Amino acid sequence: MLLVMSSLLHSRTSWTPIYRAVLAVKYRKADSRVVSTGRIGWISSSQDSSKKKLSKQLKDDAEAVIIGGGVLGTSIAYHLAKAGMKDVILLEKSELTAGSTWHSVGVTSHYNPVVNMKPLTHYSMSLYKQLGQETGQDVGFHMCGSIRICTTPERLEEAKYQMQRHGWMKAPQRLITTEEVARLHPLLYVDDVLGALYFPEDGYIDPYSLTQALAKGARMYGAEIYMPAPVTGLNFRSDGRWDVKTPHGTIRAKHVVNAAGFWGREIGRMVGIELSLGVVHHQFLVTGPIPEVASLKKELPFMRDLEGSTYTRQEKQGILFGPYESADKMKMEEGWWDCVPEGFGKELFESDVDNISDYIINSMKRTPVLANAEITSTVSGPITYAPDAIPLLGPDAKVPNMWLALGTGYGIGLAGGIGKYLSDWMIDGEPPFDLIECEPGRYGNWASREYVLAKCRETYGLNNQIMHPKLERWAGRPVRTNGIYKRLCERGAQMGQRAGWEQPNWFAHSGDEPGFKPSFRRTNWFEPVGRECDLVLSKVGIIDLTPYGKFEVKGRDAADFLDRVFANELPKVGCSNINHMLTPKGKVYAEMTVTCLASDRYLLVTRSNTEFHDLRWLLANQRKNNYDIVITNITDDVACLGIAGPRSRDVLSKMTSSNLSDERFPYLAYHNLELEGIPVQASRFSLTGELGWELFHMKEHTADLYEALLAAGEEHGIGDFGTYALNSLRLEKGFRLWGFELLQFSSQMNTSTTAVEADLMSFVKLDKGVEFIGREALLKLKRDDCERVLCFMTVDTTDVDPEGNETVWNGKKVVGFTSSGSYSYQLNKSICFAYLPPPLTDLGSRVEVEMLGSRYPGVVVKYPLFDAEPFA
Ligand SMILES: Cc1cc2nc3c(=O)[nH]c(=O)nc-3n(C[C@H](O)[C@H](O)[C@H](O)COP(=O)(O)OP(=O)(O)OC[C@H]3O[C@@H](n4cnc5c(N)ncnc54)[C@H](O)[C@@H]3O)c2cc1C
């Protein structure tokens, strides 16, 4: 199949029939060339191989069974076996690479807008560099570098934004000039190029050989691979192990790993879980030899033309190029939600070159030698996407000992890191570092088919779009709302989405510019958020806190159990406290507000998005020691409104005859109240740090409660406030948060940080008389031995504020990073938490915070800055 590209420019219709003639089937048999790194191979079309006999008898017992022999499954098997796990078995239903892997472009890049995921790629690259030598199987790794070219000032700003977020990471990257772009890639049209982000250690790899090498390594270390061995059923046994059924027999296994790629949903269904995954098409084209490429002395770097939304890499003496289509143009297999068509295995989709003709033109403009090149192959294959294009990675939220490694849009680059990460977690019983973004439980039952597919489409379309901070993505929304959603919208709520819930970020009043106005700097919400902070500080505000995760723990062993999993003492009946669940290594697994409702009944409240993450830990620890308790997730039944500010007590007092005085209702106390006849469980706590209450109530009462609060508060000037104001206020009060950047506010603690590093030891009671999880490890940790510890800073900025993940410099040296930040409207200054080496955390230490290409002076100060309620 040959086509001279420039013909496209003259007669677009003249060439499409050629493709049609060749590709006039819905799914193409996979007999086209596998393009890869110097290896041109052929992969035969799939047949029903499940009935073929195995060359050896299937074992009937295993420590771990991995389902799927793609790049991910083999990497997990390799790492588990290498780490010493005995009886690791990989089951592949047809042959290795027979899903998405075999036709991948194989690009491995350090670029990742999710900062936490960068170590995965970094580890992959280190592994790929030496895997050939270790296993004797060449992997065809080309470290040609990669460039992301910027052709608009906003893109350049984005590149600077990405620079500021990587400095302390092992992710080599730098900004380069147009001249350097031209030197690295002499075949590019660069007249409109303003600069680029350059990753010298990026490259591409042959996915087929990589998978074979991982499989070879896995076998070398003792793992067994059976194929064709389709998993046909899974049964969770009463002894906590799994029966893994295949046509060749059943394996009893402690752990099961679902690495079945776009069949992942089908494996999930075998155990009654609906995984939030969609399948998108991705197309690329390959040219034959191009004289200008053939005569190059050095291999071209991988190149992304962000504005044109295309990429190219060298393929031998030709060029491989492909588009990332916009959401309205891209194609999906929506029907695969129900099942992958029987017989689809190593097939490809029919290429639809018409659909990507605009992108082909963009490619020819950016790389003019393409115009006269001959196209020798087109490939269109399936990629599995999670709604946010971030993998589902880790233990399943609901089913014990079931691990997921699915939904990797860029699985080749991530595979090494994912294999190591998952294997460490499976062996150690705790994650090696924080990757909460990948938490499989982030999509609950609320993630409907329509929502997931709409989000996958949207996310694929965002591939080369500018990723602004606080980016709001609208597809599929609203999907999880409470009784006041419409009312809040009418009152100007500018919604954000957390764990599917719609929650106001801020409120636009008349004269404000509503909507999401993308910017790397302060933008339209900046003034209104200041107004909301002022409202809470001077009068009283209401905030919708329904997205909190809420659990009730009840039963004879409730106190014993909670004392074991939490590091702080338990509160007395009628009181709450802030409490942390630690891992055995003393890292911070979760932060919750714990309230004692009765001696055998507790309410636990966590942030949104961590609902299933936290619940899983609670349930796993309950199972371990057979505690006599019942843990109930009440998140969907119980809503919460927060009221805060100096007038908040006056407002509530108008609605109840109960005594709300400091004596009767002190800070962190908890009482059942009736507010205008509505039963609420009221906690004297507000994350704003101001006088305030959190009012938990049955969700059917939210609308009435909200109206009653507004009515009672009218004379006190009550108004709404959103999460942006909450974030600024809580930072001023020095409240640390557990969380992650996808919550839009980065966090101060997670499973990458110990309680010592996160400055949480005032919440940890080493001498409470209970051997709580993590205690032993904490006894050995000393602050001064830590690489970095948490501190608080003010930063002198102009029109930009730290948000977390900014690089912190001391002279010419990178010393740390911010963990979250905001503008303080009380101080008229930027403020942030940061992780710095202990000697630099002395009060008055001076450092610099990198933002958008400039370094702003920061000084370590005492926190909290302000102290309205007693500091917790
Ligand atoms: C055109 C294209 C280009 C791409 N380019 C890149 C790129 O440049 N860089 C990059 O990083 N990523 C790229 N990707 C994505 C990458 O290919 C995938 O993320 C990766 O291959 C996923 O690997 P996997 O192991 O999860 O799944 P798969 O490769 O799909 O493997 C799943 C395996 O599970 C097996 N299986 C399924 N059900 C069962 C069962 N019941 N029992 C036993 N076995 C079962 C299947 O047979 C299959 O072999 C590209 C993808 C496409 C389609």
According to DSSP, the number of beta strands is 41
Overall mean pLDDT score? 92
Identify low-pLDDT runs. 8-26, 30-47, 740-745
The CATH topology annotation of the domain at 50-101 and 208-277 and 388-438 reads as FAD/NAD(P)-binding domain
Distance N to C terminus: 70 Å
What oligomeric state do the depicted chains represent?
A: single chain
Present as ligands are: flavin-adenine dinucleotide
**Structural class by helix and strand composition:** alpha+beta
Mind telling me which CATH architecture of the domain at 50-101 and 208-277 and 388-438 this is?
A: 3-Layer(bba) Sandwich
Pfam family, one: DAO
Family: Belongs to the GcvT family.
Organism: Pocillopora damicornis (Cauliflower coral)
InterPro entries: FAD-dep_OxRdtase (IPR006076), FAD/NAD-bd_sf (IPR036188), FAO_M (IPR032503), GcvT/YgfZ/DmdA (IPR028896), GcvT/YgfZ_C (IPR029043), GcvT_C (IPR013977), GCVT_N (IPR006222), TrmE/GcvT-like (IPR027266)
Protein architecture, described:
- The protein has 872 residues and is α+β, with helices and mostly antiparallel strands.
- Among the domains are: 50-101 and 208-277 and 388-438, FAD/NAD(P)-binding domain, CATH 3.50.50.60; 782-871, Aminomethyltransferase beta-barrel domains (Elongation Factor Tu (Ef-tu), domain 3, Beta Barrel), CATH 2.40.30.110.
- It has 20 helices and 41 strands.
- Strands 4, 5, 11, 12, 13, 14, 21 and 22 form an 8-stranded mixed beta sheet that branches.
- The longest helix is centred in the first third of the chain and has 18 residues, at 118-135.
- The structure holds flavin-adenine dinucleotide.
- Residues 67-73, 91-94, 98-101, 103-107, 230-231, 259-263, 267, 282, 284, 379, 381-383, 408, 410-413 line the site of flavin-adenine dinucleotide.
- Residues 428-481 form the FAD dependent oxidoreductase central domain.
